[in-house]
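Lab notebook, bench 4. We co-purified these components, and the gel suggests they stay together. Before we commit to crystallization screens, I want a quick structural picture of the whole thing.
Request: model the full complex, all chains together.
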Amino acid sequence: MSNAEWRKEKNEGMSEFVTVAKVGEIAPGTAKIVTIDGVAMGVANVEGEYYAFGDVCTHDDGPVAEGELDGYQIECPRHGARFDVRTGAVRLPPAGAPIPVYPLRVEGDAIQVKPEPK
Ligand code: FES
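Here is the predicted assembly.
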């Protein structure tokens, strides 16, 4: 396989949706931490809607997905920065930059995430 073919296959592989949880496994108001290709992310359930976001705080690399989920906001457990899980936008300092968010779909009872930031 040539380098170009290998890269193409790898890139195509990266763009696939990956099943990370089953519907019902993530209780409303909570987030599950998952890893796809070494990328840690949180999958939040907000009243039955699911959102995938990066698990690394832009303030000081805190584990955002381990924090409390309050509506659409997840609070970093280290210094309390808040991010909107729908967009990654900062809602409360000390973080200044958004976290990535990822495409997510529900197929049957499978929650699937594409590990490429939106
Ligand atoms: S590391 Fe997240 S608020 Fe500081």
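The first strand starts at residue 18 and ends at 22. Worth comparing against the SEC data before the next meeting. The longest helix spans residues 3-14.
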